[in-house]
Amino acid sequence: MTNALFPVILCGGAGSRLWPLSRELHPKPFIRLPDGQSLLQKAFLRAAGLTGTRQVITVTNRDLVFKIEDELNEVNQDNLAISLILEPSARNTAAAIASAALMVARKDPQALLLVLAADHLIENKVAFEEAVNQAKQLAEKGRLVTFGIKPNQPETGYGYIEYQENQVIRFVEKPDLPTAIEFVASERFLWNSGMFCFKAQTVLDELDKYAPEILDAVRETISHSKISQGVTNNNDFFHCELNADDFTRVPEESFDYAVMERTENAAVVPSDIGWSDIGSWQALGAIGQTDGSGNRLDGEVIMHDVHDCYIRSDNRLVGAVGVENLVIIDTPDALLVAHKERSQEVKHLFKQLKTAGHEAHRLHRTVHRPWGTYTVLEERPDFKIKRIVVKPGATLSLQMHHHRSEHWVVVSGMAKVVNGNKEILLAANESTYIPAGQNHRLANPGMIDVVLIEVQTGQYLGEDDIVRIEDVYGRAPIETTNK
Question: Nucleotidyltransferase among the record's keywords (predicted)?
Answer without folding.
Answer: yes
